[in-house]
Amino acid sequence: MNEALYVDYVPGRTPLFRGKVRDVYALGDLLLLVATDRLSAFDAVLPTPIPDRGRILNQLSAFWFRRTASIVANHFLSTDLDDIAAAVRVDESELGLLRGRGMLARAAQRCDFEFVVRGYLAGSGYREYRRSGGIGGLVLPKGIAHGGRLPEPILTPATKADEGHDVNVSFAQVANEIGATEATRMRDASVALYRHMHEHAWDRGLVLADTKFEFGLVGGQIALIDEIGTPDSSRFWDRETYERSGWMTAYDKQFVRDFLEEVGWDKIPPAPPLADSVVAAARARYLEPFQRLTELALEGEGAN
């Protein structure tokens, strides 16, 4: 383990769970979600962090949670360091490393499916469409080009895999697993969220091609959980470039994957370190959608 990547953000507490990106601390019926600067590619955590990446993910999620709360309930409570310190029961001065990257949330019983909404065909969705003419059992019109806009946003659920790759499944399978009523509510909320987010992104010069949502039960009620509308969970393109040429200028970590391919990494951990120029470019690709979408300053930017 690269110790520089795994920081003790809360003195005296051990995370309940450490994922590729987030550390999760249990606080009774609350959770403290910490978005780190770790970056994964090809199912491996890279040895080189991307400065401020965690802050961008955390604050962008908080922006969307606040903005979409009237569409569907969510688990978000606060990103304020005062509130986090009170929940953890330590002095705020001990939590400096958390500034801008910590989120208090309600604990939830997670639904083990991802609700992926696509307004455009790209990525794994396009590859499946090319093979079968549809995605997850949905038959789509013929002749849609790579990056082409769909007539209407579609839901293409996927399994929620802690390891390996998610797999597209049919809505009928989701309904069979979790119940038709809850599945329908999650589907309808997902499409409504996508429409709202796409409109906002479009007005800010971005195309929201597709995005994924995760849901759980909080107090027996359906709630949006995890993250929302970040470059990790969403595919953003530059609108002006897309409209002018159809080119999909992406704001995500594909730039890093391309670098790892170019240096000949065999995709067996450990991964090679990233060049400084790649780190800077990756940070810029995460920061750009945050700035356009929120029009806010990034809290804690540049701090360790």
What name does CATH use for the topology of the largest domain? Phosphorylase Kinase, domain 1
CATH architecture of the largest domain: 2-Layer Sandwich
Specify Rg, calculated over alpha carbons: 19 Å
Q: What fraction of residues sit in β-strands?
A: 15-25%
What is the element string, with H for helices and E for strands? Answer: EEEEEHEHEEEHEEEEHHEEEHHH
Percent of residues in helices comes to 25-40%
Number of domains: 2
Number of helices: 8
**Helix/strand/pairing class, anyone?**
alpha+beta
List the uncertain runs.
none
CATH class category of the largest domain: Alpha Beta
Distance between the termini: 20 Å
Mean pLDDT: 94
Could you give me the name of the CATH homologous superfamily of the largest domain?
A: Phosphorylase Kinase, domain 1
Largest sheet: 7 strands, antiparallel
Characterise this structure.
The protein has 304 residues and is of the alpha+beta class. It folds into 2 domains: 3-108 and 254-294, 2-Layer Sandwich (Phosphorylase Kinase, domain 1), CATH 3.30.200; 110-245, 2-Layer Sandwich (D-amino Acid Aminotransferase, Chain A, domain 1). The chain is 33% helix and 24% strand. The protein contains 8 helices and 16 strands. The chain has helices spanning 53-68, 81-88, 123-132, 171-178, 180-203, 239-245, 254-262, 276-294, and strands at residues 17-18, 22-27, 30-35, 40-41, 44-45, 76-78, 102-106, 109-110, 113-120, 134-135, 138-139, 149-155, 158-159, 206-218, 221-225, 234-238. The strands form 4 sheets. Strands 8, 9, 12, 13, 14, 15 and 16 form a 7-stranded antiparallel beta sheet that branches. The chain has a 5-stranded antiparallel beta sheet with strand order 1-2-3-7-6. Strands 4-5 form a two-stranded antiparallel sheet. Helix 1 (53-68) packs parallel to helix 8 and helix 4 crosses helix 5. It is globular.
